[in-house]
Write a structure and sequence with these properties.
Number of strands: 16
Distance between the termini: 28 Å
Oligomer: single chain
Number of helices: 8
Helix content: 25-40%
Number of domains: 2
Largest sheet: 5 strands, mixed
CATH topology of the largest domain: Rossmann fold
Strand content: 25-35%
Radius of gyration: 19 Å
Strand order of the largest sheet: 1-5-4-3-2
CATH architecture of the largest domain: 3-Layer(aba) Sandwich
Length: about 290
């Protein structure tokens, strides 16, 4: 399936209607803030009898109960629901934020709190547009470069991240979340593009970048994140099938480790370092030297 067709498919499959949704799948009802996946159907229950139902080919139906928090609806739709739609249509969502440079995507991965969104916001000041925040959807089809779908989420930053990056806060993300939406300084990239590399964020005393190889590449894709849990469900919750899927993906992706101090006083230095590294690597690819 070509790039325009993939984008059209996701646009079609993520269309939303409000109405009555099932309250269970396969005879089982989900607890609050949990989900079920059965065949080609996905059901998520948020707080306050707030149901999100997706069936492949039929789009998403949202049912708001009397105590549903409508302000949180967008977070669920752009989070677990979007990941489920991607997985059920042969795509792979990974826990990463990304920028675009030189026509390719440079994605930052790491556990929650590793600073992925903060780094992407700061790289906007260096002229690198945001490609995705928090979740990057990959198309594993074909044999060449893995293609990335442009981000579907707005940039979200903590108060501390806003101060570090100089980004301007917009409205609050939601009650008790402690984050604000913000516009990337260099805007966003909205075209499907190849993945140049996955950059794993780690803490250390000195700035450095080193390439990863072997089994670590696979295990780094198996992040403890809801996207992996949903992908596993689409694979029948078979660990061997999930591992095989990620192993095939890892063989096609360049991965590096970016080590940096987590000292706010050294943050700008780290941003300059990785911005220059990305630029240099992109120039090397353009010149045929990498």
């Amino acid at each position: 399936m070509g790039s325009p067709a993939i984008l059209a498919l996701m646009e079609r499959e993520t269309r939303v209607a409000h109405g009555s949704a099932p309250h269970g799948l396969g005879g089982t009802s989900p607890a609050e803030t949990s989900w079920l996946l059965e065949g080609e159907e996905f059901l998520l229950r948020a707080r306050g009898e707030h149901y999100f139902h997706y069936r492949r080919g039929a789009g998403i139906t949202v049912e708001r109960g009397t105590d549903a928090d409508a302000s949180a609806e967008g977070l669920w739709l752009s989070g677990s629901v979007h990941a489920a739609v991607a997985c059920l249509n042969g795509l792979i969502p990974v826990h990463a934020s990304a920028v675009e440079h030189g026509g390719a995507v440079h994605a930052f991965a790491g556990p929650s709190g590793a600073g992925k969104s903060t780094l992407v916001a700061a790289l906007g000041r260096a002229g690198l547009p945001m490609f995705a925040d928090d979740t990057l959807v990959l198309d594993p089809a074909g044999e060449g470069a893995v293609m990335c779908l442009p981000g579907h989420k707005r940039l979200k930053l903590t108060v501390e991240a806003l101060a570090l990056t100089g980004a301007c806060a917009e409205e609050s993300v939601g009650t008790d979340i402690g984050k604000y939406y913000a516009s990337p300084a260099a805007g966003t990239s909205g075209q499907i593009a190849p993945l140049a590399r996955l950059i794993l964020l780690e803490e250390g005393p000195e700035l450095s970048v080193e390439r990863l190889g072997g089994a670590e590449r696979v295990y780094r894709l198996l992040d403890d994140h809801y996207t992996v849990a949903i992908l596993a469900a689409t694979k029948g919750r078979d660990p061997a099938v999930l591992f095989s899927t990620m192993a095939r993906l890892a063989r096609r992706i360049e991965m590096v480790r970016f080590v940096r101090p987590r000292d706010p006083a050294q943050f700008d230095e780290g941003v300059r370092f990785i911005a220059e590294w990305i630029t240099t690597q992109s120039q090397g690819r353009d010149d045929g030297n990498a």
